[in-house]
Design brief:
Order of helices and strands: EEHEEEEEEEEHEHHEHEHEHEHH
Strand order of the largest sheet: 1-2-15-14-13-12-10-11-9-8
Oligomer: single chain
Strand content: 15-25%
Shape: globular
Radius of gyration: 20 Å
Number of helices: 9
Distance between the termini: 29 Å
Largest sheet: 10 strands, mixed
């Protein structure tokens, strides 16, 4: 495997040699992704029977179904997994725990603490705030997909991961998810300030370096990274220092169709995306709403983003590819320090769908290098 650098800031991940067998396997794998579109891990359950006798008002195949009586049926169920506490012994594997921030809304964070040097009980490490994807409607910070992935990130990057459980559409349309995720950033700022009367989580007190905070997310989570970054510019951050943002296959859109959204082979994907936006955006909003189109006619200036550096990943075969590239180009136009990585031969969130992909380690390395270089700025 090689990484070919194009110019200063754009990288293309490719493979030196493909055998015929590998090509056939990749085609079969990509066909599976195309059929189901989003992440389908081995523990996936597809719900086949209806949970309501009421008429269907919206059906997004293999994703979500809405009924006239208000019932919401999520057709993909991956379940959840519990956190794994090590009872204070963090020198062997990643420990995790849930911290409830708002019992009324159900918002919580799952914290991941990496293995630390046994001789340094006060070792300080950076923080990565992570927003999960899946169209604002599916998935959870406690799902096996994200639990496994963030365990790996925490272990390899040697940092504390803060994975956010936010309210989902359509029960809670945007900006509910943005509100919840921005609230987590404010909570972290308060944790760093050690305000009298506000309890500080012991993992943060002992190990968090709040001067090195990164914000990341995939798909819809990448969209959230952008939105909270715009909102964050409107206040002072006395406790945390944002070092950078990482957007993996970010979920953006717009009213006007662009190249990768055209063609009969994309029709099913585009209909799925249109359906997701229809139940996620505020009622009456179109796809040029600032929540969907970050560089649209009514969107806030991109120059106000709070992040000093940004890393964007797109996948060659992803219907969202060109939206991510347009976002990169828009950030470049306003003078932002931004990098773009295009992964050839891969589809949407391939690193979660197929964690054994030969491109996954290259993606992880780019993320780790980005965070290390940003911390040294």
């Amino acid at each position: 495997m090689t990484i070919l650098l194009i110019g200063e800031r754009v990288a293309y991940i490719t493979t030196n040699v493909f055998t015929a067998l590998n090509a056939i396997c990749r085609c079969l794998w990509d066909f599976t992704i195309c059929l189901l579109w989003f992440k389908l891990p081995s523990r996936l359950t597809i719900i086949m029977e209806s949970s309501s006798s009421s008429p269907i008002v919206l059906d997004i195949p293999r994703f979500i179904r809405l009924y006239e009586d208000g019932t919401v049926e999520r057709l993909i169920d991956r379940g959840t997994v519990p956190p794994k506490s090590q009872d204070g012994n963090f020198d062997e594997e990643v420990a995790s725990k849930n911290v409830v921030l708002d019992p009324q809304t159900g918002v919580f964070v799952r914290l991941y603490l990496p293995p630390l040097e046994a001789t340094d009980v006060k070792q300080k490490v950076p923080l990565l705030v992570y927003f999960h994807g899946e169209g604002f409607c599916i998935e959870s910070a406690a799902s096996p997909v994200y639990h496994s992935y963030l365990n790996k990130v925490a272990a390899e990057a040697k940092l504390i991961c803060v994975s956010v459980e936010y309210r989902r559409a359509p029960e809670h349309r945007l900006p509910a998810a943005y509100d919840d995720c921005f609230g987590v950033l404010e909570w972290l700022d308060g944790q760093a300030m050690t305000v009298e009367g506000v309890p500080v989580d012991p993992w943060f007190a002992s190990h968090a370096d709040f001067r090195k905070v990164f914000v990341a997310g995939d798909s819809a989570g990448g969209n959230i990274v952008h939105q909270v970054g715009i909102r964050a510019s409107g206040r002072n951050w006395d406790g945390v220092c944002f070092q950078g943002a990482i957007l993996v296959h970010p979920g953006f859109g717009g009213e006007e169709r662009i190249e990768c959204e055209l063609g009969p082979e994309m029709e099913g994907f585009v209909k799925t995306l249109d359906g997701i936006w229809s139940i996620s955006l505020p009622v009456g909003a179109n796809r040029d709403h600032p929540f969907c189109n970050p560089d649209g006619p009514r969107s806030p200036a991109l120059s106000t983003l709070v992040y000093p550096r940004t890393l964007i990943f797109v996948a060659e075969q992803d219907v969202l590819r060109d939206r991510g590239i347009l976002y990169y180009e828009a950030l470049k136009r306003v003078g932002k320090d931004v990098e773009l990585v295009v992964t050839e031969g891969e589809n949407h969130v391939f690193h979660l769908v197929n964690p054994k992909s030969e491109n996954e380690p290259l993606m992880m390395k780019r993320i780790l290098d980005f965070m290390e270089n940003s911390s040294n700025h």
